[in-house]
TrEMBL record:
It comes from Poecilia formosa (Amazon molly). This is Transcription initiation factor TFIID subunit 2. Residues 1169-1188 have a biased composition (Polar residues). Belongs to the TAF2 family. One of its GO terms (cellular component) is transcription factor TFIID complex.
Amino acid sequence: MNKKKDKGFESPRPFKLTHQVVCINNINFQRKSVIGYVELTIFPTVVNLNRIKLNSKQCRIYRVRVNDLEAPFIYNDPTLEVCHNESKQRNLNYFSSAYTAAVSAVDPDAGNGELVIKVPSELWKQGDDLKVLKVYIEFSLDQPKGGLHFVVPDVEGSMAERGAHVFSFGYQNSTRFWFPCVDSYSELCTWKLEFTVDASMVAVSCGDLVETIYTHDMRKKTFHYVLPIPTAAPNISLAVGPFEILVDPYMHEVTHFCLPQLLPLLKHSMSYLHEIFEFYEEILTCRYPYSCFKTVFVDEAYVQVSSYASMSIFSTNLLHSPMIIDQTPQTRRCLAQALAQQFFGCFISRMSWADEWVLKGISGYIYGLYLKKTFGVNEYRHWIKEELDQIVEYELKMGGVLLHPTFSGGKEKDNPTPHLHFSIKHPHTLSWEYFKMFQCKAHLVMRLIENRISMEFMLQVFNKLLSLASTASSQKYQSHMWSQMLLSTHAFLKSISNVSGKDIGPLIKQWMCRDQSGVVKFFGSFAFNRKRNVLELEIRQDYTSSGTQKYVGPIKVTVQELDGSFNHTLQIEENSLKHDIPCHSKSRRNKKKKIPLMNGEEVDMDLSAMDADSPLLWIRIDPDMSILRKVEFEQADFMWQYQLRYERDVVAQEEAITALEKFPTPASRLALTDILEQEQCFYKVRMQACFCLAKIANSMMSTWQGPPAMKSLFTRMFCCKSCPNIVRTNNFINFQSYFLQKTMPVAMALLRDVQNLCPKDVLNFILDLIKYNDNRKNKFSDNYYRADLIEALTNSLTPAISINNEVRTVDNLNPDVRLILEEITRFLNMEKLLPSFRNTITVSCLRAIRQLQKNGHIPSDPSLFKAYAEYGHFVDVRVSALEALVDYTRVERSSADLQWLLDMVQSDPVHYVRHEILGMLCKNPPFTKSADSGLCNEALVDQLWKLMNSGGTAHDWRLRCDAVNLYYTLFGLTRPSCLPLPELGLVLNLKEKKAVLNPTIKPELGVSVVMDTPASIGIHGVGISYAAVDEEPDPVSLGVCGVGQPPQGLKRKAETPLGSPPEPGQILQHQEDDGRAGRYKIRFNTMEEEDIDMETVHDSQAFIHHQLNLLERPSTPGKEPPLVEQSLLSTPATLPPLFSKETPLLSSKHSSKEKDRDRDRDRDRDNSYAYSNSPASGRSLRSPSLSD
């Protein structure tokens, strides 16, 4: 492939993992606990491998053995608490750099890990033979907060009868949460998975089920799975529950699992899956890579779709019966996404985080091809336009999305995206919104590559990548071959140039690797020069505002003239604005002749509206969306109307509808009405036209003739001939008219009369639709239609007019509003007796009630929403109620309800709901950084800081990033304004632009020290980085301090460069209790302590300067180790021989005290504790037992 590939993948680890056994022999649903062991087979790649770093979070480790010898270990997780207690920083810049450092300190892609195992010295001697090592680890999990999710319904009966189940979940590298592993997408190995569960339960995992063995008493059974295809740990998953099992009738190697009583829904929802398989296998000309595929539907899912090797876990809410229309396309889309990720994402993995875009891009691209085949070209182009609009909106608001963070110039920049409040170097520091936009942009860039090299070549490239990986996967034990299953950007681009012979370098540079990677913003206008018969087109760009970039290159312009449609390719140069395009037709005044369109169709047009001198009907810039751009084009209203009526591309029609909102004229009204009546027109265009028509009608209020917009049309299409105000019995057999019937009333309710109220006849019309709605003869459910009718009632509401502040009661309600309220109450009560699919009606009713409150018709009261938001209701209902509560909090500025929401974020059992609350608070914040608010106070800052620093978010990356987003929305990047000034250890001297030590705090230092540092930094707890010890740093202690380890064999000089990690175990501590001021205690690796008088230290100025430089990039995210005196208390009389000279005496304060963590945090804050010297710990101080 390429030079790098020939040598094989360069692993950051000093060993190669070839096989891993995971055995979970007890899953307890009552206690929500798991007990098991793992065994990793490792080939050392260096002589004398003395330390093995693995990933493990929240697992309690009981013992570690390497080749049957007890091995000491250290466990430290710096991400449990990012910034330490003494920090009163409270600014996001500080947090963000500390969090990035903490994540990097245990990042498996850098060869790090939370669990550091010391290989027993007996095994070093044999290291020359590079003998295989077997690492055996016993562990348990108790009430996991991440990685595994237990769903135990609180009802009567046994666990199986209650439908209790557990499944693994997580976002990017989250397998470490439920068993120790190398949690990296680039470390592949084969797997053996064993799960012992109750006889009534089923365990579903990756690979082939080899056998199921019952215990002697027949009360338990063990499922044995084998996965012979090399797979990365993050792609391993597990689901255990009393699942009902369905073997796919079309493909026997596919099995579906669902919770009890949902089998009929499962049969219907999965009846289509085999067609998706056939489609992908056909376009990729490659068999599905695994020998089986399993779909598992679980409750309280983390995301709708998670893909793992040979299995996918879905939300049970995707299942539906044949009566449901709206859910069907969404479920099929989810299945198609999951299958696309089986090929690219699970089977082919990525080399590093910087290559993630390739996998997301390819799986998104082939999913798009599936959409095009199944739902048609219109749906596909509509989807591309939606995705493009989303990325444009996000990048213009937040700044560019960088697909390949380390590509620029080979050197990794410290911060390639200064405009963001989080680091993009690691998936775990990304905001969820950014990650979604990242995936969206990745597949759009793939589409740009397809435009450049053609679809045929594109599919050949994918086939080549899959066949190489497939060959590599069948190689047994030749693990150097397995790197062919890892995809890198370099290999992908190389493959493209080999297959197509085209150089796509400039395209990649433009859209992926620019530091200012953003979208292009075009403004276009034109003039027609009649004398020369030339169209003078002017295209300007805005590349100065945030999230934009300058585009130089070709752009396609389509001009529809009287004699046909013509494509022109213009070259956008550095400074050229005007382009002359020769016209092919002369203007014709009276000649009647059909006009040829782009698709070869010829149509009659009424040309009376157009300019008599010009042959131009309409102009489009970049019609194929082959640039990531936003176009604002100016043309006359009649040109937009022609474009809407006669252009056959849905994207052009949607652009025309958006543009016509600015032209409220009878001609626009007519064009929109024509589109609504035209059955051949794409249904989503007709739905958009409804809302545009309502806007135009409101702008033309005074001149509008005839009945309200869309009413006569709706009557003609859906009502009885004899009695026009009674709607016909429902018949949704034609889906196009079904979607139109749902949308029209919602749009009509937005109409307003001269008093800015909803016209009386419109409201009565909607109430009649509800009254006469009859679904008895319909084979489809009407729950989405009824939900939309409630939404129509909601849209008809306008603010209440109150006279002398009278109190609102039911008696003095406006009669129209009273009717609306009665309907909503009736619907809510009916819903309790006969719930609709996904409770769509309750969701609409809750929104309506909030709207009634906001408009002052009924008193604002959050108690109803709180009741519906409680755990136990259906998730959509909860989210809808929470949305209303978030809005209530903002409008009423209620601190009690904000507190209620934040408590729910910490305590709610459903991860998705916690994520949604924070997301909604970001979208609709109770206050913002620019406005003063009574809600902004020190307690709130502390609570949010705790939440993202150490609270409930340490075991859910997504939630922690959500909390960071909320903190940013409320307070910005700097220290929140409501906080008092900290007692500064430093003072900012504005004249000299320097920070100096505050003389009032440390007068006795005797030296005036001047430093260039941020003023808000205190001087506690910093690792010292000048060292007189010239020896190789010890990786274990560096792991504990949470610092990236320097490359092996690198000697540290006495003058260490600034900002480097501290020498192992060296901690600067100010001795406050000591009477002698200015004395610092420096702890070295050795057992004894040395007191160093600061005044006698050589060059103390440089020394402190160094400290503060270190603080700018916090290099020790791990907690400060306890004092040596305390450690000594628990030291045995004779120290074990394990301590060689270079080993520091460190013990980490992070234990697996997750259970008692919240209770004990305040107590722990003051007294660091050392581990007891328990026998399970390998009998040494160095390997704390985690079962304390």
